[in-house]
Design goal:
The protein folds into 2 domains: 27-265, Rossmann fold (3-Layer(aba) Sandwich); 269-377, Immunoglobulin-like, CATH 2.60.40.10. It is 32% helix and 29% strand. The chain is built from 9 helices and 18 strands. The strands form 3 sheets. Strands 9, 10, 11, 12, 13, 14, 15, 16, 17 and 18 form a 10-stranded mixed beta sheet that branches. Strands 3-2-1-6-7-8 form a 6-stranded mixed beta sheet, with helices on both faces. A two-stranded antiparallel sheet has the order 4-5. Strand 7, helix 7 (216-228) and strand 8 (241-245) form a beta-alpha-beta unit. The longest helix is centred in the C-terminal third of the chain and has 30 residues, at 379-408. It is elongated.
């Protein structure tokens, strides 16, 4: 009896050690309060092995995406949904303009993802039989990584907003297997991905799922190898690329969600200011302090060459100094930087533009572009009121003196 109780207690401790508590409502609210916006590119394997009827993971992946994205997105974000098997397909682009309305659209888009197989027949009617071999055999029978990477790179280039952070998520249970009619000689991650990763404005998560021809561990090792052979991999900052295992006996789908959220959060945020409103002055100068915070789990060095102010209306770009020019933040640590530029507007008028930070290293903070507004006053607009008041006071004093002289005589 005692042995049985001990075994039960040990099993309970082990089970609790693998349990990951779900995020509370306040945690999701904090995530949605992040500065700036995200473009999230989702690529889902829809080959036949993903089908729920064959023990595939598609139902769990859809549930994860509906729960994660619907809770995470905020107004201004964009979700780009793609799928692939023998071909890669653009499914939908969902901009979050009205959160309550558009998250319901997002749920429907994700719910519509389905694994399928295009069956090709040979022979003539009515003796048609399924063609098991040949150049046209395809559909869900294959997982063409080459076409998947091609469409993903095109979507990121075409639909990625430069001011947003980009996140790419791949969910797959299959090794690279191209159809016979379109061989894929190099299934590796193309160099188009490394550009965004090297600039630290891009995150990439590759999720290895159970159910395919390989085990999760074998698929994970393959995906890791593909990532490490990506052009420019040696210059990519740490913690921006993750290969995530779906562990059947471990944390499962909740663990995958936690890993994705950790990937999303591996960044440095510019907490304030959210925009630069300098007001109206005769000499418009900038002496603004800003706060950045390291939300990742590793130390992050930030190096700045300065910032460039681009004004609407044709004035030449203006250099803005940022001090200190280099700062290293520990995990969770905040830091202060100062923007400075003296009397940088020439002619009176209202000005609008953008301030763009110029980074000297791969690590950066977001948003990397701030909107700016300012008003340059003419001398009379700035000081005319004071002059008028002084003249009025002087005139009053003279008039009083004159009256006094007249009455005294």
């Amino acid at each position: 009896m005692r042995t049985a109780i001990r075994i039960f207690v040990i099993a309970l401790v082990i089970a609790l050690s693998f349990h990951i508590p779900p995020l509370r409502a306040d945690d999701w609210e904090d995530l949605r309060a992040r500065p700036g916006n995200d473009d999230i590119f989702v690529m889902v394997d829809t080959s036949l092995s993903m089908a729920p009827s064959l023990g595939g993971s598609l139902t769990r992946v859809k549930g994860l995406l509906q729960d994660l994205l619907v809770r995470y997105v905020r107004e201004g974000d964009r979700i780009i949904v793609m799928t692939f098997d023998s071909e890669a397909y653009m499914r939908s682009i969902v901009p979050i303009v009205d959160r309550r309305r558009d998250t319901e659209v997002l749920r429907d888009v994700i719910d519509g993802i389905d694994a399928h197989r295009v069956i090709h027949y040979s022979g003539t009617y009515p003796e048609l039989v399924e063609a098991e071999d040949g150049l046209l055999t395809g559909g869900g029978a294959w997982t063409d990584y080459c076409d998947m990477w091609r469409l993903s790179a095109t979507a990121i280039r075409k639909y990625g907003e430069p001011r947003h952070r980009q996140l790419f998520l791949l969910f797959t249970d299959g090794r690279p297997e191209a159809p016979l009619y379109r061989p894929c000689s190099d299934p590796g991650v193309p160099s188009a991905f490394s550009a965004g990763l090297n600039e630290d404005r891009f995150r990439m998560g590759l999720i290895a799922l159970p159910g395919g021809t390989s085990s999760v561990q074998e698929l994970s090792a393959l995906l890791t190898q593909l990532v490490r052979h990506m052009p420019g991999y040696g210059h990519i900052p740490g913690n921006v690329v993750r290969v995530i295992d779906f562990a059947e006996n471990g944390h499962g789908i909740e663990g995958v969600r936690r890993e994705i959220l950790a990937l999303i959060g591996a960044r440095i945020d510019l907490v304030e200011p959210s925009r630069l409103t300098l007001g109206g002055h005769y000499k418009v100068s900038m002496n603004t302090r800003m706060t950045i915070v390291n939300r990742s789990t590793v130390s992050r060095p930030i190096s700045l060459r300065g910032a460039t102010l681009n004004l609407i209306g044709g004035q030449e770009p203006i250099d803005v100094a940022v001090t200190p020019s280099r700062i290293t933040l520990l995990p969770g640590q905040s830091g202060l930087l100062t923007l400075s530029a003296q009397d940088f507007l020439r002619d009176p008028g209202e000005y609008r533009g953008t301030l763009v930070f110029n980074f000297g290293t791969a690590s950066r903070f977001d948003p990397a572009t701030l909107d700016l507004s300012a008003t340059k006053l003419s001398w009379w607009q700035a000081f005319g009121g004071y002059v008028t008041q002084a003249i009025a006071v002087l005139a009053t004093l003279l008039l009083a003196a004159l009256v006094r002289v007249l009455f005294s005589s």
